[in-house]
Amino acid sequence: MLPLAPLLSLLCASVAVGASAVARGSPAGTAGCGTTHFFNGLTQYHSLTSNGTTRHYSIHLPSSYDKNKPYPLVLGFHGSSGIGLFFELDTRLSSSDYTPDKIMLYPDGLGGAWAGANYSVATVPQDLLFVSDLLDEVRAGWCIDNSRIYATGISAGGGFVNTIACSPVGANFAAFALGSGSLYTDATGPFPPSASCVPARSPLPVLEIHGGADPDVHYAGGPGEGGIEPAIPDWLGWWAQRNGCATPDVGKTVEDLFNGTVHHWSWTCGGVPGVVQHWKVDDMKHCWASTTLDLTEIAAGQGTTPIDASTIVIQFFDQFTKP
Ligand SMILES: *[C@@H]1O[C@H](CO)[C@@H](O)[C@H](O)[C@H]1NC(C)=O
Ligand SMILES: *[C@@H]1O[C@H](CO)[C@@H](O)[C@H](O)[C@H]1NC(C)=O
Ligand SMILES: *[C@@H]1O[C@H](CO)[C@@H](O)[C@H](O)[C@H]1NC(C)=O
């Protein structure tokens, strides 16, 4: 029989440590929990070395950041000829309107680009390794809820989010959301199987928002700036099938909104409601959909849209936790 007193004190000690490190009922945090950070609420710039190459990123913590509380993490990927700051400004995802309780992370692509386009500087394995190294660094330095890591991006950055979803690195993420995605690495369906897209698990939640009048990444697919792109409805159907729907149309519901100018598609696949979702804005061009005029809408030569992509993306992420 074990001596009771030492056993009890051991139990009490571990309960006490557990209670001070993480509130009861909270998810387990990463190694970075307990590390103090300053200037919370202000975006801060960092670099890391990935396979011998210096890479840059910025991180934004909620101003109320609690070093002992595990936070959901959202990676935001800028479009071509961009930097993380552009995506942060366009989407306003660092704002407490959207992410009062999330950590935002904005990586910079090499040469302003992400792998996958024919003009990219980095190779796909190189950028995927960067994402993996970046996740290691952030988990070690900040308090992250490992079951709630998400990726979003615009245009070529959205395409790269899909490249992550189609790779083993996608196993780290709970859900993916793309705006006006340039899907260069996933244009060779039909399912099954496409060697260029082997998701780490199924179902894997994916959302895409696209303009029916996009002159750069055509809704109907075809040649784009950096390569051939699939038709958006075809690509959505591939994801429905990858996620366990027998055909692209089974499990799909369509809702027409704003007097028929916006269409929301949602699939239940693999027993998960809304695991694939799509918003089509008929007259929208190549931009980040926003009800408040953003720079991508100005650059695209259009006004605001009836839907707000940042709201939709965060609400989508909030529905999913990595199993
Ligand atoms: C890492 O760097 C080496 C040497 O430059 C290169 O051969 C290799 O392809 C790189 N690996 C990745 C994943 O980019
Ligand atoms: C990239 O691909 C597009 C579409 O196929 C093509 O028009 C363009 O010439 C290509 N550019 C390069 C540098 O290969
Ligand atoms: C909705 O569309 C119909 C048909 O095009 C049009 O007559 C009507 O004015 C529109 N309503 C609004 C609120 O835009």
UniProtKB/TrEMBL annotation:
It is an enzyme of class 3 (hydrolase). Its EC number is 3.1.1.73. It catalyses: feruloyl-polysaccharide + H2O = ferulate + polysaccharide. Residues 1-18 form the signal peptide. Keywords: Carbohydrate metabolism, Hydrolase, Polysaccharide degradation, Secreted, Signal, Xylan degradation. Its main location: secreted. InterPro entries: AB_hydrolase_fold (IPR029058), FaeB/C/D (IPR043595). One of its GO terms (cellular component) is extracellular region. SUPFAM superfamilies: alpha/beta-Hydrolases (SSF53474). One of its GO terms (biological process) is xylan catabolic process. It is found in: Secreted. One of its GO terms (molecular function) is feruloyl esterase activity. This is feruloyl esterase. It comes from Mycena indigotica. The lineage of its organism: Eukaryota, Fungi, Dikarya, Basidiomycota, Agaricomycotina.
